[in-house]
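Dear Dr. L.,

I hope this message finds you well. Following up on our conversation about the binding site, I have prepared a predicted three-dimensional model of the protein together with copper (II) ion. For your records, I am including the exact sequence and ligand specification that went into the calculation, followed by the structure tokens. Please feel free to forward this to your student if that is useful.
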Amino acid sequence: MKSFVALAAGVLFALAFVGVGAAGHSNSTGLVGEAGPGFTVEVKNNGKDLKTIRHGTYKIKIEDKSAIHNFHLKGPGLSKKTSVAFKGNTSWRITLRKGTYTYQCDVHAATGMKGTFKVT
Ligand SMILES: [Cu+2]
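The resulting structure of the complex is given below.
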């Protein structure tokens, strides 16, 4: 009886853990690239501005919030972008290698609508 209680507690703990993980995912967990609606472009990881990240394969959600901007991510072995006219959400599977990656709006990069992060 004692071991059954322990087992049941373990299963409940595991279920609670999975539940928390799933809830976290719907709350912008992971990488998000955002362009617009103003003249801003950013990449966040779990809600914080991304500065550095380990190399590897990631899923990144792209939120292109304006038809006058696009979101372009480029760096070692990678160049992916939404079109300027596109407005909406999409997601990419990307492989990040060691180095520096730049994200920008191609139309307004020259006026500062860009940023970088490092991959270690
Ligand atoms: Cu722009």
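In brief: Residues 68-69, 105, 107-108, 113 surround copper (II) ion (CB under 6 Å).

With kind regards,
A. P.
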